[in-house]
Amino acid sequence: MSGFKFSVGPWNVHDGADSYGPAVRANISLADKIKKFKELGFSAVQFHDDDAVPNINELTQEQIIAEAKKVKALLDENGLEAEFVAPRLWMDPHTIDGGYTANCPKDREFALWRSLRSIDIANALGCDKLVLWFAREGTVCAESKSAVDGIRYTIDAINAMLDYDKNIKILVEPKPNEPVDRSFCGTIGHVMGLSAATKDPSRVGGLLESAHAILAGLDPANEIGFGLAMGKLWSVHLNDQNGIKFDQDKTFGVENLRQAFNQIRILKENNYGSNGEYVGLDVKAMRTTKDADSYKHLENSLKIAKMLEEKAEKFDYALRDEFVKNRDYEGLEMYVMELLMRG
Ligand SMILES: [Mn+2]
Predict the structure, then answer these.
(1) Please, which residues bridge with residue 46 across strands?
(2) In the chain, N or C: fewer CB atoms in 10 Å?
């Protein structure tokens, strides 16, 4: 029995289109996805603003809230919670140069408008978390923006969100690159610095994605540990990634099992989830996956996470302490490998 509650986003079941080719699977409706997420054993759903409210730009605030309430009813019918809402700022014609850090003031205003509407949607869905993935907050042409102004604009935008809703919590999801070449806020350490510079650091924390940490050349478990040490790790996107290249969102644990084990272990050791935090699985199906297997990568990620939970439960802390006392790290390492490799 898993001690974690798991969450997932509608984008984790997709048609397989990538930068080099069109869709290869049929689209599945949000209603069907939500029903299936419940069957698979998820407890909550994560949303982009326009996952919950398509055509959001065309609607008034009242219409947006009314549309979001329909999605809330869908969640209630299936016994699922909403975990968070994230403004999808990277897909819009207004944000081709970024959102909060765009050089054009009108585009920065648009980014804030979408963020405040995302808070409205979160309230309608009954959740108090807003996630900001800074997709285009950085540069492709390094001289095109000031990194100093970019971070100051970002702090101003977060402060406006904190003012707008006294209960909203902001979770920043760092990523060092892609689609930008250079991000202004690439790691959980950056996020904690940003949090400290806002008007209410107690409501600004982080979401760590395994693949994003690996893209930064860092260990995801230690990034998780940094957020936990600050008391500000409020969500995770567990997945896997083969080295420093494009963001792959592979099934959790399939590239580096020991690294995956250590992510689960550090979450368990620190009672992650005891304040209602979810373990999000942000994974994508392979392009070769057939329609009938549209959810297989999610099933596999859940299975692997739960199997690693069992391994973490078996981890012998007294034995670890003995190895540490004798400074026998060769022995400790082999113990971990045997724990992972033996049934
Ligand atoms: Mn990713």
Answers:
(1) 84
(2) C
- pTM across the whole model: 0.97
* Burial (Cβ within 10 Å: 0-12, 13-18, ≥19) of residue 87: buried
* Distance from residue 211's CA to the centre of ligand 1 (Å): 6
CA of 210 to the centre of ligand 1 (A): 8
What are the residue ranges spanned by the domains of the chain? Answer: 6-315
Would you give per-residue pLDDT tens digits along the chain (343 residues)?
679 999 999 999 999 999 999 999 999 999 999 999 999 999 999 999 999 999 999 999 999 999 999 999 999 999 999 999 999 999 999 999 999 999 999 999 999 999 999 999 999 999 999 999 999 999 999 999 999 999 999 999 999 999 999 999 999 999 999 999 999 999 999 999 999 999 999 999 999 999 999 999 999 999 999 999 999 999 999 999 999 999 999 999 999 999 999 999 999 999 999 999 999 999 999 999 999 999 999 999 999 999 999 999 999 999 999 999 999 999 999 999 999 999 7
CA of 213 to the centre of ligand 1 (A): 10
Topology at the third CATH level for domain 6-315: TIM Barrel (3.20.20)
The answer to whether 254 and 261 are in contact (CB under 8 A) is: no
> 275: CA distance to ligand 1 center in Å?
25
**How remote is the CA of residue 301 from the centroid of ligand 1, in Å?**
14
